[in-house]
Write a structure and sequence with these properties.
With 355 residues, the protein is an alpha/beta fold. 44% of the residues lie in helices and 15% in strands. The protein has 13 helices and 10 strands. The chain is globular and about 55 Å long. The structure holds NADP nicotinamide-adenine-dinucleotide phosphate. NADP nicotinamide-adenine-dinucleotide phosphate binds next to helix 1, strand 2, helix 4 and helix 7.
């Protein structure tokens, strides 16, 4: 029996995780948390808002599935990694913001870090046990979002309703907007760097409109391996929760005779500068990814509220990165202070841009 704590139980990942837990009698939901939506009776222990680490202390889970959205998930990520409790990680923002601390805690704690992001779950499976020196590079695929093929000029007037109409994945609002700006792929680039210990120059992003190939690994002998599947988050959620068994799911296997289109092309960094901003923040290191993430969270919320135009998102992120110092963080308190400062500056820049 595996005792699961599900954080972010009311979200898109959380609801799909509940389906997986219900299908597997060997998975027991011992704790569930949400931000503000009531969840009485969902698990033995439930919590709405508040300090997630207190819930985890009480629940003593074998696996934490962190499906909270945003920086708010960071304390729970560190809680699991420090204690060597297996962490099934959907909350990419915690690894982006606190990558150095998280990797140190992971080494110290010695537990498993199982990615739930579909591209990283794919890469984890492709890299499985292979010596790092045999790997040439990792390729992450991006659907390109609803605005694939748009020029920068086309993007000036797009609305949040248009941004929320993702062509291949059904997800929460924040990640759907991140997919439309390609910031999601930028966050995933940083996430992959910390998960797999690969330098940024050996992680590439390509646009692949059908989202059937989730990731590829090129090896030093010229061979590449790819991970394929229909875009359905229940597959990586199930893989992480039932690892290493790879339990059965009800999801359709790929139909290769139905005309699969495997097309890849380079992303348009002029129309979608968030990807380049994330790569630059990753290269800069220290707390630049934390500042990038905080500014993005503020700008995306303002876009969803109809205050900031779509192209204001990269603008706010770039300007915030130009105005906030990004020193190394010694602990969670340092990161929390830098996150707060970046949010303060990003909010002020957002108000400036709007008026
Ligand atoms: N959706 C996907 O397909 C997908 C794919 C890959 C990765 N991810 C990642 O998975 C994470 C969740 O994404 P999502 O699409 O599931 O988001 P979502 O639908 O917006 O759900 C977010 C969840 O987080 C909870 N939450 C927010 N703030 C919280 C807090 N302070 N304390 C406790 N819970 C809090 C929300 O609770 P309330 O309902 O009460 O607000 C909700 O349950 C994100 O990091 C995203 O990048 C998602």
């Amino acid at each position: 029996m595996k005792r699961i704590a599900l954080l972010g139980a009311t979200g898109s990942i959380g609801r799909q995780a509940l389906e997986i837990v219900q299908e597997h009698p060997e998975l027991e939901l011992v704790a569930a948390a949400s931000g503000s939506t009531p969840i009485d009776g969902l698990a033995q222990l439930t919590q709405v808002g508040g300090d997630l680490t207190e819930l985890l202390d009480r629940a003593e889970p074998d696996v934490v599935l962190n499906a909270v959205v945003g920086f708010a998930g960071l304390p729970a990520t560190l809680w699991a990694l420090e204690r060597g409790v297996d962490l099934a990680l959907a909350n990419k923002e915690s690894l982006v913001s606190g990558g150095d601390l998280a990797v140190a805690a992971w080494r110290e704690g010695g537990g498993r870090l199982l990615p739930v992001d579909s591209e990283h779950s794919a890469a984890f499976q492709l890299l499985d046990g292979r010596p790092p020196e045999t790997v040439d590079s990792l390729v992450l695929t991006a659907s390109g979002g609803p605005f694939r093929g748009h020029s920068r000029a086309d993007l000036a007037e797009v609305t949040s309703a248009e941004a929320l109409a993702h062509p291949t994945w059904s997800m929460g609002p924040k990640i759907t907007v991140d997919s439309a700006t390609l910031m999601n792929k930028g966050l995933e680039l940083i996430e992959a760097h910390f998960l797999f210990g690969l330098p940024y120059e050996r992680i590439e992003v390509v646009v692949h409109p059908t989202s059937v190939v989730h990731a590829l690994v090129r090896f030093r002998d010229g061979a590449s391996l790819a991970h394929l599947g229909y875009p359905d988050m229940r597959v990586p959620i199930s893989y992480a929760l039932t690892y290493p068994e790879r339990a059965e799911t009800s999801i359709e296997p790929l139909d290769f005779a139905a005309g699969l289109i495997l097309e890849f092309r380079a992303p348009d960094l002029d129309a979608f500068p968030c990807l380049a901003l994330a790569r630059a923040a990753g290269d800069a290191g220290d707390t630049a990814p934390c500042v990038l993430n905080a500014a993005n969270e503020v700008a995306v919320a303002a876009f969803l509220d109809g205050e900031l135009p779509f192209l204001g998102i990269p603008d706010v992120v770039e300007r915030t990165l130009g105005q906030v110092d990004c020193p190394p963080a010694r602990d969670l308190a340092d990161l929390t202070a830098i996150d707060a400062e970046a949010r303060r500056i990003a909010s002020a820049l957002t108000r400036e841009l709007v008026h």
